[in-house]
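One such given next:

>
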Amino acid sequence: MGKGEHTRTVILEAALAQASESGFESLTIGSLAERTGLSKSGLFAHFGSREELQCAAIDMAAQLFADTVMKPAFAAPRGVPRLWAMFEGWLEWTQRGGLAHGCPIHAASVEYDDRPGPMRDRLVGHYRLLQQALDKAVRIAIDAGHLRADLDIEQFIFDMFAIVLGYYHAARLMDDARAGERARAAFARLLADFAVPGALP
């Protein structure tokens, strides 16, 4: 990695840590200059605008999610075990990714859901890629004979998202110590509702 690429990575890691703590709207060239010890002109050399910096930071968050959740899950056996690996990784990805606070992608979706522009477009794009990956994993679970062929895949993925968002709410805002336990119980019920009889342990 060259010096310029290394510096850009250092800036984005600092931006992601700040976004996890205070949201993407807290990201400014000035705040990151202070956080990284770099000059404002130095940051402008890597990111021409605040918006460009925010977009690059959300891209880095999505890549970190892929590296800590999706790639390890692909090593799990095909079918329901892989879906479980994705779900578990999704619940724990901020800890696995070294982020001290909440999910920056979820935080950004709340910040930008009613604000058309590059950040919203970026988020929608990343969430669509996640939906495509989940769609493929569910179809594999059907082909493996673990889930019923008449399963409504879009509804299943909607329900899976809802469980994870409920987990974030309970764990982060409500300090529910049993949030993880409740989320896993809800996902187990969702799988059981569509399992082929005798296919799940």
